[in-house]
Write a structure and sequence with these properties.
9-stranded antiparallel beta sheet, glycosidase, 9-stranded parallel beta sheet, signal, alpha+beta, Glyco_hydro_b, Immunoglobulin-like, 994 residues
């Protein structure tokens, strides 16, 4: 949930008034505060005008904007020193300073370091960091580490090499030795390095394949005519614009045709011949910079622009996507957190569950309809006046909560509430308006300041608020203490961090001097209030629900017309442009205006202002993109204070490179639109690249009203995302999966698969946690020799073995999907029929997909460990084991299983099982001390060409009654193995021979 202003644009959203918990354009009434007869102060609604920022013109839209490449002189290198480990040099301005968007830095330090054979870095920083002429921020390595260095690395042994030149001005080029191809080339461009504007340019091959540069909602392969803004924004999921997090990293994949002499010729993926085989090389680039940034994609390459900081690039040579992604995490940003087993169950939430009783009713309904439910969530409804760590004692009293949570936990289920990033600051003139969390934080002096040293006071859900200062060494302890105190009252099982961009509903420190008028209502109508009634439905609703759609449309346009006539309009817009002042930074309105998606492009709009000041003197301008990252760090470690032995479970909205070490991420305030279900797949795949595999979106959509068909399809699709949650907005129609009979059936069908393969999910996550591998995977990553897969993002893989091909459009009864690898002997099996798919290589195959059916396929060569579905993961973990063996074309298969207690931070006992099939024999080799007491019940083998004469487990014949063979489907089913494995499925090594 959020607070947003612009929900969607264009055809995606009609005139329906769907807004999230951010700002809408509606404003509430307001009145001056005055004492009542009882001596208490009345409060008011902060006016919407308080959020209005300056109207700026983003440079890409500004007709007067100067192209720095055309007017800046660039640099010349001198004092060059080369060694086996790299190069250092001094860069000096090559001409008259251009000072186009700041003050040019006249001297820079340039360095190349070969960090490892598959990794190198390029750094460019001001020479005089202590000069009074510059106010410079260098990113703290304790907050965002630099890539580690292998002291044995050298230029000679590296996969990459760098060349540089001074003609016509300084440039550098990174080349892959294996292909001779330049993977990063600043030739024919100039380096621009000013105190508020840094720009570098690299050329790229025609029709390049780039992925990443987040966070954005868009297709997986980036367009080559788009400006990507990186600035954390509290906004409700606009397509292509900047949203909640910042991940300045990209993957570049290139395909080559190799001749007999080993020469590599670059091939455009969209023009590669289907009949040929190719090789691919992938590399990654990480720009270690937390400032507001823009990456301008164009057909010839990209321009990377930043509002400050340094150039600190790390190159990862791969050469595979897996190699790049693992290297990026292992060496630089850190490995993703291992999640508790329960987190892979189903989660239910909504904004609008009004009390503990309603939560209990929801849980009871899931049980009634026999739909698995693992965790019930609370949005801001539970809070007293929207205050963190403070329950509303009328609706969510602690005493009733204790009873509810005891019952919930005894059923094997869990509870997770939302916590916002802002802290309410009370009215000092109202003695009854006390708030202990603020009092303790104020005493510890842990809140952000104004430049004059007073507390920075914005406005969020509670009214006027202050914001934790994560640069203060005491703030983490303050935050942990509040969570520990609250946990003693409410036995939470994890934390959902929201509004951590960090958001504020007014521009500037609007609460300073105004605390006597502390608002009780945000500056906009909440969903369902007059002027913001939710009428919208997904596309296609008008075809199946004509009368209801017509009524909703009429009411929506009436509401929109009322809002238009009731507000004031301006006949002209006044834009603010600023020009550089030598040696001075304009913090709030920098001369270069990034294409920020808030109104007016103002960095202060709907956020804490850039001039908010941290305890070390650093201003928010330099670290805005890190607030979410740091609160997730603090929350993770706070939960360790609650229970140091248990893995913390944190889901956060604003993230940065490395946030996956502590938290998962959900896709934010999406809408109940088919487009958002469509884009959820590339969103998830992008976060795989960013090292945050625990990702999901709000199934059925958050904003607006969903409908039966969309929710049916979405509940099935999200069942194959790591984080699986249904969540919707205040006052929208209910969308729990038991609301519609068809959605109930579809959900149970997909959940049956999900809960069966939970051990596979868990194993994938352990591998991601230990090696940096991905969980959700693009087809191109698993099949790197096929250029036709480069842009495929409408289907995906879970690990190497499960492929999902969902329906992503309304009123469809089939879907077209590709089955990769067929020309190389790959075999795919239909999950439901267990038969091999009849498809042709390199073409889309039409797959039947009536409503309620999601096509799922198993890759030949896989062994998938499974248990029986149940209503909770605890129950599922207590069931017998089964193995699904999908034979490859050569009759072989492999698989893995990892087990532990599912929650310990450092489990004492673990188990690793390796499965291997060769010559009609399945072997299991176990290593570790975890005692898995559940027996093995069945083994199902797909692709068995002939009926076996006998089946034996460790030489002991399996009774004929337990062996079945279907000659038509070629499926061998071996059951009744419990007696032969009564000590546990993996208590000893075994082999099943057929």
């Amino acid at each position: 949930m959020v607070g947003v202003k612009n929900l969607l644009s264009g055809a995606w959203l009609l005139a329906y008034g769907a807004f999230s918990r951010s700002a809408s354009t509606a404003s509430g009434s307001h009145s001056a505060a005055s004492p009542t007869s009882s001596g208490k102060y009345t409060q008011f609604t902060i006016p919407a005008s308080a959020e209005a920022g300056a109207q700026l013109i983003a440079n890409i839209d500004d007709p007067e904007a100067v192209d720095a490449q055309s007017v800046c002189p660039g640099y010349k290198a001198s004092n060059v020193k080369e060694s086996a480990r790299g190069v250092t040099a001094t860069l000096t301005l090559a001409g008259k300073p251009c000072n186009v968007y700041g003050t040019d830095v006249d001297s820079l330090d340039f360095s190349i370091e070969y960090l490892a054979n598959d990794r190198l870095s390029v750094q460019i920083v001001p020479t005089y960091l202590d000069s009074s002429n510059y106010s410079w921020f260098m990113l703290d390595e304790h907050v965002v580490p630099r890539s580690i260095s292998d002291r044995q690395a050298s230029k000679q042994d590296s996969d990459l090499e760098i060349a540089w030149s001074n003609e016509p001005s300084f440039y550098f080029k990174v080349t892959r030795k294996a292909t001779g191809d330049a993977i990063f080339d600043t030739t024919d461009s100039v380096l621009v390095f000013e105190n508020q504007f840094v720009e570098f340019v690299t050329s790229l091959p025609k029709d390049y394949n780039l992925y990443g540069i987040g966070e954005h909602i868009q297709q997986l392969r980036l367009l080559n005519n788009l400006t990507l803004t990186l600035y954390a924004s509290d906004i409700s999921d606009p397509i292509d614009d900047n949203v909640y997090g910042s991940h300045p990293f990209y993957l570049d994949t290139r395909y080559y045709e190799v001749n007999d002499k080993g020469h590599h010729t670059l091939v455009a993926s969209d023009k590669a011949a289907q009949s040929k085989d190719y090789v691919s090389f992938s590399h990654g680039v990480f720009s270690r910079n937390a400032h507001g940034q823009e990456v301008v994609m164009n057909p010839e390459g990209l321009k990377w622009r930043s509002l400050g900081g340094s150039i600190d690039l790390t190159f990862y040579s791969g050469p595979s996507q897996a190699g790049v992604t693992k290297n990026y995490q292992l060496s630089t940003i850190g490995l993703p957190a291992l999640q508790q087993y329960f987190t892979f169950g189903f989660h239910q939430c909504r904004w609008g569950y009004n009390n503990w009783t309603e939560l209990e009713e929801v849980v009871s309904n899931f049980e009634k309809f026999e739909i698995p439910l693992e965790t019930i969530w609370s949005d801001i409804d539970y809070m007293h006046g929207y205050r963190d760590f403070d329950n509303d004692q009328h609706r969510y009293p602690y005493s009733d909560g204790e009873k509810f949570l005891d019952k919930l936990h005894s059923s094997g289920r869990h509870y997770i509430p939302i916590i916002d990033a802002a802290i309410y600051i009370p009215n000092p003139k109202n003695a009854s308006d006390t708030y202990d969390t603020y009092t303790r934080g104020h005493q510890e002096d842990v809140f952000l300041k104004n430049p004059d040293g007073s507390e920075y006071i914005g406005a969020v859900w509670p009214g006027y608020t202050v914001f934790p200062d994560w640069h203060n060494p005491k703030t983490g302890d303050f935050w942990a203490n509040e969570i520990v105190i609250w946990h003693k009252k409410v036995a939470i099982d994890g934390i959902w961090i929201d509004m951590n961009e960090v958001s504020s509903f007014c521009t500037g420190s609007c609460g300073s001097g105004n605390l006597r008028m502390n608002p009780t209502h945000p500056a906009f109508a909440l969903p369902g209030e007059p002027g913001n009634v939710i009428y919208d439905y997904p596309e296609g609703f008008e075809l199946s629900n004509k009368t209801e759609a017509a009524s909703a449309s009429a009411a929506s346009f009436s509401q929109a017309a009322t809002a238009t006539t009731g507000g004031s309009t301006s006949s002209s817009t006044s834009y603010l442009r600023t020009t550089p002042t030598p040696g001075v930074r304009n913090i709030n309105y920098p001369p270069y205006v990034i294409n920020h998606d808030q109104d007016g492009h103002d960095l202060s709009s709907h956020a804490v202002s850039p001039n908010a000041t941290h305890s070390d003197g650093v201003q928010e301008y330099d670290v805005h993109n890190l607030f979410g990252h740091q609160i997730l760090n603090a929350t993770y470690h706070a939960l360790l204070k609650v229970d140091e032995k248990k893995r913390p479970f944190v889901i956060g909205r604003s993230t940065f490179a490395g946030s996956g070490k502590w938290a998962g991420h959900w896709g934010g305030d999406n809408a109940s639109r088919w487009a958002y279900m469509f884009f959820s797949i590339p969103q998830a795949l992008s976060f795989s690249l960013f090292g945050i595999p625990m990702f999901g979106v709000d199934a059925c959509g958050f904003n607006g009203n969903t409908d039966e068909e969309l929710c049916n399809r979405w509940m099935q699709l999200s069942a194959f995302f790591p984080f699986y949650r249904n969540h919707n907005t205040l006052s929208a129609i209910s969308q729990e999966p038991y609301i519609w009979e068809s959605v109930t059936a579809a959900t149970k069908s997909a959940m049956k698969i999900r809960y069966a393969i939970l051990p596979y999910f868990y194993t994938l996550f352990h591998e991601a946690h230990t090696t940096g591998s991905t969980v959700m995977r693009a087809l191109a990553w698993e099949f790197p020799t096929d250029p036709s897969l480069a842009a495929v993002d409408t289907q995906f893989l879970l690990g190497p073995s499960i492929m999902v091909v969902p329906v992503l459009a309304p009123h469809a009864t089939s879907v077209r999907g590709v089955f990769p690898g067929l020309k190389h002997g790959e075999v795919w099996y239909d999950w439901y029929t267990q038969t091999a798919v009849d498809a042709k290589p390199g073409v889309n195959t039409t797959i039947p997909a009536p409503l309620g059916h999601i096509p799922v396929f198993v890759r030949g060569g896989s062994v998938v460990p499974m248990q029986e579905p149940a209503l909770t993961t605890k129950e599922a973990r207590g069931t017998p084991w089964s193995l699904l063996v999908a034979l490859g074309g050569s009759g072989t298969a492999t698989g893995q299983l990892y087990l532990d207690d599912g929650e310990s931070n450092a489990p004492d006992d673990t188990l690793d099982v390796t499965f291997s099939v060769k010559e009609s024999s399945l072997s299991a080799r176990a290593k570790g001390s975890w005692e898995e007491l559940n027996p093995l019940a069945t083994v199902t083998v797909l692709g068995v060409s002939t009926r076996p004469d006998a089946v034996k487990l460790n030489g002991i014949p399996v009774p004929a009654s337990g062996v079945q063979y279907n000659a038509t489907s070629r499926v061998l089913s071996v059951g009744g193995l419990q007696k032969l494995t009564r000590k546990g499925a993996f208590s000893a090594d075994w082999a099943l021979k057929w």
